[in-house]
Fold this protein.
Amino acid sequence: MKPVAFDYVRARTLEEASEMLAAGGGAARLLAGGQSLGPMLNLRLARPMRLVDIKRADGFRALAADDATLSIGAGFTHAEIEDGAVEDPARGLLRHVARGIAYRAVRNRGTIGGSLAHADPAADWVSVFAALDGVAVARSARGTRRIASGAFLRGAFATALADDEVLAAVELPLLSAGARWAYRKVCRKTGEFASAIGVVVLDPARGLARVVAGAVEAAPVLLPATSEALRDHGPDAAEAALAEEIARLLPHLDPAARRLRMVAVRSALRDIAGEG
Amino acid sequence: MDTGIASPRLRIAVALTVNGRRVSAEVEPRMHLGDFLREQLNLTGTHLGCEQGVCGACTVLVDGTPQRSCIAYAVECDGAQVTTIEGFDADPTMAALREAFAAHHGLQCGFCTPGMLIASRDIVLRLGDVPETRIREELSGNLCRCTGYVGIVEAVAAVAAGREPAADAAAVPVQARVAAPADASVAPASVAAAPAALAAGGAGIAQTIALGVSADAAWAVLSDPRAVAACLPGAELTALEGEAVSGVVRVALGPIKVALAGQGSITLDQAARSGVLVGRGRDGGTGSSAEGEVRWQVVPRGEAASELRVELSWRLSGALAQFSRGAVVEGLVRRLAADFAANLEARVAGQAPPAAQRELGLLALIWAVIKARLFR
Ligand SMILES: Cc1cc2nc3c(=O)[nH]c(=O)nc-3n(C[C@H](O)[C@H](O)[C@H](O)COP(=O)(O)OP(=O)(O)OC[C@H]3O[C@@H](n4cnc5c(N)ncnc54)[C@H](O)[C@@H]3O)c2cc1C
Ligand code: FES
Ligand code: FES
């Protein structure tokens, strides 16, 4: 099996990568870990004329923090997060999630940025990014722009990134010591993409309570009423609000698919309750 | 399209170290590392099964960690240290694993074995003595078509017994974060066209769209194939003769771009204000094809309003279908349907459709939007 012939260039900086994308007029494609793009190239589903490799670009793999936020360079791999080489701003959530993505040999190449930019609705980082209400830092030759998770994730395989923009980093809140989280990924085989995802993040000190239903064939869905019930009255109240809200916000899923999301989120809420 | 890209360079020079030996070569950028090892270096111990990252047969070490050689390209590995199954003769852990695989009947045909051994060595060295469940979890990315998992897991457990895990990975230093590096003046620019995908197998949806125009005004547009096509972003009508239509429908799904060229027929029922389009199209590049049917009907809702009912059914075959799940991205369909309705309303009112919407793969409404995903 051979991909369609393509040219390959290596970008030294993200700005240079952006210029290369603009010059390619839609026929150039960024290459990070290649763990989503590679299979599509090999099957000739994706047929770009040029790959712009950003793996070694300056500033693509940097960590920066202040009191409230950790900025994670888009080029860090799932394995580096799994191993704790990348500080976990969410008190173990990221390490836990990373270990459940694909297989170690894929995690050694695949990047957090590539996963978010690819925006497969069933991808793990997509749901986590929404649950932590992260911010995407988009870089282009035109400058830098910061995009909140809700605006960044536009739908299945669709993000707010413009054609010449590179996802440079993701900014995530540094959760406080008393924060709790739960993550439930429903899939039949270890390492598979999820059939359903439930994520709960509760950080009373930061006033953060977010319950998200993921892998819903579109951008992950924040459940505001359930989140509010969790913040004000705890996990049991949140569970009581859940069924109605899932039915209201995900009417388009078929009943079995809807139930699967329900179960994923409910299990995550019970995990939180169990710890409390 | 002006891509600014001349024809791809045929070969690019790379220098890497394979099993301790320096190798320089000229490679086609599209050659993956697995092919490079097998075809150019004759290291045929690396096996290729799926070539899409799933089976693990092609696993090698790149810079000391196991990676898939089928979804890493040789050009990317310039400067890397690669170790294939042929490169472990002097490795004591691998020697112990070889013995254990033999003792525990960890292989039958041997196809998965090179990848299994390299993954197993990583488990033993990285994790040390872990429970069997963890070994199974870690080995889940290596498929054995002879299904000899029990022996393989026993072999790994035997070698891992009593071992310490590797020391924690060195932490990446954290710099001070400078206040938001945002440049508010950067405009969002043109956002990439929203992807529309195609469903696997047979699938269908029904959709009702409220229109702020009278049924007659809506029907005037919806009974004119050229006008309908103009409201469908991504669709282009190339010929129209009687009931026969030909055209192209363009869709994008992340990095996948398809242009389905095909023929169809349109049948209209003026009295019922309804129409049926049946068509099939093929994308030469991906070798995928789609066939589908759209039924639409305009129903009056008072004087100045009406309702458009659309029913879609479609079927995909070829490469794209292998990657698709049956589930429809209903959210996306609804968004596309809303754009179609907006375009239709604008057209009826005599305005040009909003430019941004013209790019959308509204063929969604015809071939429908689906969701494709690898490995389902
Ligand atoms: C067998 C297998 C199983 C998998 N299972 C899972 C799973 O269970 N859960 C999961 O979440 N993922 C899974 N994945 C996907 C994996 O996590 C990928 O690593 C990830 O989706 C893409 O990251 P990448 O760095 O490899 O990106 P690439 O493949 O290099 O790129 C993907 C897309 O994003 C674009 N892109 C990449 N980086 C950037 C950037 N910085 N800015 C803008 N655009 C960019 C590319 O142009 C391309 O279109 C699996 C993959 C495989 C092969
Ligand atoms: S051949 Fe590489 S994972 Fe199957
Ligand atoms: S031994 Fe035959 S594939 Fe594993």
In short: Chain B is about 25% helix and 30% strand. Chain B has a mean pLDDT of 80.
